[in-house]
Amino acid sequence: MKIIYAGTPEFAVPALAALIQSSHEVSLVLTQPDRPAGRGMKLKPSPVKTLALQHNIPVLQPETLKDEAVQARIAAEEADALVVAAYGLIIPTAVLNMPRHGCFNIHASLLPRWRGAAPIQRSLLAGDQETGVTIMEVVPALDAGAMIIRGVLPITDQDTAQSLHDGLADIGARLMLQAMNQLEQDGMLTAEPQDESLVTYAEKLQKAEAAINWNQSAEAISRQVRAFNPFPVAQSTLKGETCRIWMCRALPGSAAAGVIHSVDDGIIVGCGTGLLKIEELQLPGGKRLKARDFLAGNPLLPGERFGH
User: Fold this and answer.
1) Is the pTM value of this prediction over 0.90?
2) Closest by alpha carbon to 83, among 138, 140, 46?
3) Cα→Cα distances 185→24, 47, 129, 179, 259, Å
4) What is its EC number (predicted)?
5) pLDDT for 225-284, tens place per residue?
6) Residues forming beta bridges with residue 167, ordered by sequence position
7) Which residues are annotated as a binding site for (6S)-5,6,7,8-tetrahydrofolate?
8) Hey, how many other C-beta atoms are within 10 angstroms of the C-beta on 62?
9) Which one, 123, 140, 141, 204, has the greatest CB density within 10 A?
10) What's the pLDDT score for residue 94?
């Protein structure tokens, strides 16, 4: 089949790679325009563009898909399907109607739970036991299309947004290739409408959410730290400086909220309920360090505290 692929970040790379290596033809890649990045703020191509160019696939990078010339270019492909993964631009109905068999999206949640911008982080913050990928039809409404196939990924107490991201990207690649193979074979895909009564929304992350409230339970703070790794990174104050906390785990026990309980094999801090064992942290201008290495250069004592 002739496929147009629309995606931008790392999440979208495995599925594009899988389609390139398959019997299908990826004839055009849509990705967001190059953006300034790094210290020099030089324009940097998206991960999807980088992969497409390595395989000599034409790349289109419009600021909007509402432009008539852009739509004409997409229509000229006469594609069988449009595959979407974290593209980041609204796809107008006119474009959705162009591919012969429709448009299909890789969404990083078990729909109808967690429609929207930050499904991976919200599933962690909420304490969900599992997440997954849904291959769905693309419709004008946000993540509201009928579901074609779903794959489940259990969430462990050591998972971060990054580890779930990587696992879900791989599942999405496998499921989308499976769906495209079936579409080629059968000429159609069976889809199940979402139960609107079960819909939840994954609001975009706000940096203000990264501040740790030590009156929360250790479990809740652990989920916050892991959900915000690698971005925006949970943080608290320590001796008047902003301290970024990268990894931790909840433990039983009790101590005053924000107060350091012990500093043996990690930094154990009291919470509203339970204790938090900080395993990786970082001070301004410093490197991300294991707790043991951090303590070697920044000694802490029981009774000292995080937060104000």
Assistant:
1) yes
2) 138
3) 12, 30, 35, 10, 62
4) 2.1.2.9
5) 999 999 999 999 999 999 999 999 999 999 999 999 999 889 999 999 999 999 999 999
6) none
7) 109-112
8) 17
9) 123
10) 97
Q: What domains are there in the chain, each with its CATH number?
A: 2-202 (3.40.50.170), 207-297 (3.10.25.10)
pLDDT in tens, 12-62: 999 999 999 999 999 999 999 999 988 888 999 999 999 999 999 999 999
Annotated binding site: 109-112
Between the alpha carbon of residue 86 and those of residues 57, 140, 273, 275, the distances in Å are: 19, 15, 37, 37
Q: Which helix (H) or strand (E) holds 133?
A: strand 130-137
Give the closest residue to 276 by CA, choosing from 227, 230, 214.
Answer: 214
Contacts of 287 (CB under 8 A, 6+ apart): none
Which string of DSSP letters, residue by residue, matches 60-97? E--S-S--HHHHHHHHHT--SEEEEES--S---HHHHT
Structural contact between residues 161 and 121, judged by C-beta atoms closer than 8 angstroms: yes
Rg (CA), the chain: 22
Maximum Cα–Cα distance across the chain: 69
pLDDT at 308 over 80: no
* DSSP-derived 3-state class of residue 98: coil
Tokens of 8: 């931008």
Beta bridge partners of 217: 273
